[in-house]
Each structure stands twice: as structure tokens, then as C-alpha cells.
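Good morning C.,

I know you're traveling, so I'll keep this short. The sequence:
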Amino acid sequence: MLKIVRNSAGKLLNSQFGQLALIGQCRTVAIQQQNQLQTIDIKSYREPRSVWIENLDAVEERKLGIMELSPEVFGAAPRIDIVHQNIEWQRKYRFVSFAHSKTRNEVRGGGRKPWPQKGGGRARHGSIRSPLFRGGGIAHGPRSPTTHFYMLPYFNRVLGLVSTLSIKLAQDDLHIVQDLQIPTDDPQFIKDLVQERCWGPSVLFVDSGDFMPRNITAGLEEIDHINMMPVYGLNVYSMLKHCTLVLTKDAAEEIETKLLEQLHLNDTRNVMNKFRTSQ
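The C-alpha cells, ready to paste straight into the viewer:
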């Protein structure tokens, strides 16, 4: 009898120790998984993009410092489809078609009935300027002026700017300068500067304010392929139209602040309501 009791008690203790060991193994696995998740979160952190700040006071290039740009704005994965949507939207919202065709009421002639309604054995007609006749009006032709305006969704426009800025930086076509102050208003100085720094055939300068420095404004009046623009006018079409995008330090900071604010909005409905075309 004692042997039976001892055997049953030993089995019970072994089963309890086995359960405790299993619980300990589960805890160990959970701790390991938690450490792996923490490691993944640390590795997924994206470092800011570092860009040289260049000078404009001389043709020769000098590095004035390093500026860090947000990877969410200047290092995002480019969405080529959204960039294409922005280009099509900008090309079409200002396009008005003046193609016009005349209806049967606008075509010259055809005032009387061509033949009697009955008795002639022919189909009944009221005018020889019907769309069924040669030289008649057009039934469903284009009517001018026809606008092709439509409104692209707000966040597609925001993502279009982010994608284009990231593409420009990845292709080394985005440069940061301290300011737009140049020593002379001679257009040849700007041409030599662009050629020396290999900025390509067309350049777009972007500053934070409306009023640009006098020298660069006067120098660019005779150069068609180099343009200037304030921050609030920056758009996808203009950035892609020019080979090189040159931002001032203040303009880069303002662009980054505004786009980060739009990317992290909590109340998006009020933003979208302002751009409804049915208002």
C-alpha cells in the first residue's frame, strides 16, 4: 500500500515540476521575442539626410556646413504613380478646350420641310440639316468652352511633393545654399556659376519669401531657363521641369515644417472640405 502511495506522489511531483519547467521555457521565449522586437524597432529608425550647405557669393564652390533633413520628407520611397497624377492634374486644370461643333439649329439652311409628311413613299423629315443628312448638324459633338478642371485629393498633392523632393535629393539634383545673395547682377556670373557646378541646363531657385535679392533678380531677367519661386508656389510640375532644384536654408526648413505638419494631421476632414469642388 505504501509503495502505491509513494509512486502516485512521485508522479504528481514530476508532473508539477514539468509544468513549472514548461512555464519557465515559455517565459524565456517571450523575453527573447520582446528583445528581438526592440532590436527591430531600433534598426527600423531612419537617420536624417545630411546635405552640404553651399555658397553663392563666388563661382567656386565652398562647403559652409552640413544641414540635416527629415527622412520623411526628403528620404521617402518615391511614388511614381502619385507624381504622374500630380503632373496630369497640373496640366489639365488650366486647360480649356475651344473645339466647337454646330447643332442642327445652328447650321445654315434647312428652314422648310424637304418633302410632305405622307404620300411620297419616303421617310418623314422636317429639315435637311438633320444629323442624318450630309451637311447637317452634329448630334453629340464638342461644345466650347469646355474646362478639364478637376481637384486632386489633398493628400495626393502632399505625397506628390514629398516624392518629388525625395527623387531630387536621391538623384543629387537638390542643393542647399545659405541665401540668394550674389555679388553682381551680371547674367554671365550666374551662367558661369551654373556651368562650374554642373547644375544642368535649367535651374529653379526657391526662397522662403516673395522678395528676392536685387542682384539675382536682375541677373535672371535675361535668362529664360533659370527661374525663381517662393516656397508657397512650389509644385511638382515646376520641380520636374527644371533639372536642378536649389533651396535656401530657410526655404528647406519651411518646406520640411509644413510637409511634416500635413503628414501628421489628426483632423483630416476639415482639410479636405476646403478643397471640395461642389461648394
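Safe travels,
E.
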